[in-house]
Fold these 4 entries.
Entry 1:
Amino acid sequence: MSAERLFEAFLFQSRWLLAPFYLGLVAAIVLVLVKFSEELLHLVMTLPSAGSSDIIVGILALIDLSLVASLLVIIIFSGYENFVSRMDTGDNEDRPEWMSHVDFSDLKLKVIGSIVAISAIELLKAFVKVGDLSQEELAWKVGIHLTFVVSGVLFALMDRLGNKH
């Protein structure tokens, strides 16, 4: 076997170095689950004395954590399939339909879309508790959210322009 073929085989097999990253992201989902459980327990325990804005903020925190966990699943599945190896799930009917169809470009858009959604939830939580924030803090939150929105639109635009060629 030539040196070039050996080198190319080595490079091709090096994709497996990404596998521990995806395993670490699975561990991150466990951490998000722990935090979700803590938030849910806190919400249930404070429910009798909580005002409606406290309940709304608590529910938004749960939604926020659910979005983060869902985003991690998308990154794990599509990243693994795009960069490491196809997942052989056999005839499992629970295999998500999107799994084989999310390429790197779609993954970028899903990530930025999720970040925008998470940012929007954080901003909504801030608006519910607007009395607890200074004008400057609120302006920063709105500015950061708008930055994410503009970034998302620009990513989508670049992707669309790139796909025309």
Note: The helical segments are 3-13, 19-46, 52-83, 104-128, 135-163.
Entry 2:
Amino acid sequence: MNPPPKHAVLFIGSSGIVRWTTLAADHPGTTILNRAFGGNQIADSTHFADRMIFPYEPRIIFIRAGGNDLHAGHSPEEVFSDYKVFVATVRAKLAEIPIA
């Protein structure tokens, strides 16, 4: 009934973003959309992109992920590979959106 506005600054990733309780206050005058969730691994952000990224048509995506991947036993090379898949997935639909 009341979807968030499109073209916001989208934050995704794991609990480091979830627990950032002052996110909106730290970015005054910016429309912030927080779609992070605890336990998130990079592959989760890719898997759920159709639900947590694309409907919002963000103007920039900030992703904070990778720590849970390493903790789960993924090698740094696997984490980087998953990140490249994430970027390719985003670029396929939002080619010009910056990813930080």
Note: The first helix runs from residue 15 to 18.
Entry 3:
Amino acid sequence: MKRNFLLISGLIIILFSACRKVVNEDTQAAIDDRKIQAYIAANHLNMTKDTSGIYYQIITSNPGPHPDTTDTVQVTYTGKLLNGTVFDTEQVTNFAMNELVTGAQDGLLLVGANGKAPYARITFIVPSRLGYGHINYGSVPPNSPLVFTFDLIGFYQ
């Protein structure tokens, strides 16, 4: 009797595991890229794709030096989903670069800051693998490309 219970339980677990939809990283990257390109077209944006995989547009450049991944940045920013839902926004705040999702780090490395206005402003779209990936993070659903607009005020080590 106990053996039959274990056998049936094992079969049920296998069946449920087989039903779970798993999307590999390459497939998700292609899905994200289609969504991002549709968003760019629908919003008439002029963005460049970086080698990291993010799409970006520098709105205001600043001639100052660029931050490094070991720096702490002073920024204002807004993070949105592709459907326009704002999931995070901050007025002047400080972040260690390594506290940011990889795609946000990649975007901030593209602009300079000298601590004077006008501050560098950049909008970038982060594919899910460079954002929160396949996990649900607060109000951000799994596999969500993210749209950020950052003003880089300054940075320090």
Note: The radius of gyration is 20 Å.
Entry 4:
Amino acid sequence: MPETVEILFEQGLERYNAGEDPATLLPLFKEVCERAPKSSPAWTCLSWLYLLDNKPSQAYKAAQKAVKLNPQDPQARINIAIAMLETAQSGVRQHVETASQLITMVPELKEEVERNFEDGLSRKPDWKSLLRVKQWLAEG
């Protein structure tokens, strides 16, 4: 029996949290996004994995979909901002400002975003774009 999209998504998160290489998880999250194209969390995760795998163009496209599906998700906004920095696009400030407003209004979101920053830096210690966005949010 084929696994549901929710089960695949949860398994992917478990494998990611267990430290699995983002590159090996990309096919799983691509499949989740194909099977659940309106799932903002899936697109946000896919964009994050692309960023960790040094594929900012693909990350940008996935983050665009996540932001379109859920403009109130600060992590999707952060992912698109990082991807835009890494592909030298303009318009980064709008996404950072929106993310800043969202995490200011909802403390739980701020905690989640901070955990994601730490996770990203543990996997990519010299991640300049992530460090810039993190600094901008701290100044926000």
Note: The chain has a mean pLDDT of 95.
